[in-house]
Amino acid sequence: MWFGDPGHVSDVTIRAAAEKALAGMPGSVRAAWMEAMEEARKDILGSGTVLESKQYTGTYDHRYDSWCMPVELGIGIDAVDDGLATVRLVQHRSEGFDTIIQVVSYINGRRRFHKVTVGEILPAGSRTNYSPENYTLQLREANDAYRALQAAFEAPDGRAERYQHLLRLTVALKDQASALKTTAPAPAEPRPIPDWFALSPNEFEYAVAELCRKDGCTRVQAIGGTGDLGADVVAYTPDGRKVVIQCKQYRGKVASPDLQRFAGTVFTIHRADVAVLVTTGTVTSPAARLAKAAGIEIVHADRLDRWADGRDQPPWLHLSTPLPTEGGP
User: Fold this and answer.
1) How far apart are CA 73 and CA 54, in angstroms?
2) Cα separation of 304 and 298, whole Å?
3) What is the band of 174 on the pLDDT scale with cuts at 50, 70, 90?
4) pTM of the model
5) Please, are residues 286 and 260 in contact by the beta-carbon 8 Å criterion?
């Protein structure tokens, strides 16, 4: 795999502009470029010219013993061991071309990971005064194009898999552009966060259902009530997965018995593909471990607020249960 050392490449993306440049190369030149980039994998940061380097620091949450990284770094880097991630723009010259690469580096599980993006492939020396602004412009143009494609696929027309792919790609483009921009445009207005405790239990379930609907789910239903067997909200993701959500409007902690009851029905009875417990409080450490073992995603109070105002991805794109440090049953 490209750029495998040092560390492990968790994702490699080739932007539309780079794919177009590759398609326009003669076959022998394209093969030589691919071979040269494969050779560069062992020292991708050392063999190229670093055009820009930024370091991002996460926020440590003692309750869940985890770091929460800035959302602009993209999916998959929400928790790292040391709370640091580095974003570098690297210009690498090979086979008569200057290749502009973005590398996001972080440590997770005591291993070094890289997310690599090939942004542009240019004739060598064609842009001697390269600037990050040019790269950012390319990303914004691509982002606009994919937003248009996303809108075209929002209607339920049987192409859910393609829509989900485009949706994730759009999110990645937006995050990469945000990490690279030097002059920030006016930020979009955040979605308002409801006062969760001003809602009745039924209104709380409807509010969670509305979050699913806003993030692309279809066939969304708030069905909680007597005899619901733990299924307060049922929805289907854009790629067709069934999401079953239990809502706990608690000010305190959700304990193990609640998780045990939900785990006993969510997969065997409700046939969920994704199981989620949403709470306005927190969860005990044993409950979080049980959720992790059972494959239940936890959305605690902080995550719920971030999901509500658009700073975080919906839970069916996370699937990683945090482990708080508190004790409890």
Assistant:
1) 11
2) 10
3) low
4) 0.43
5) no
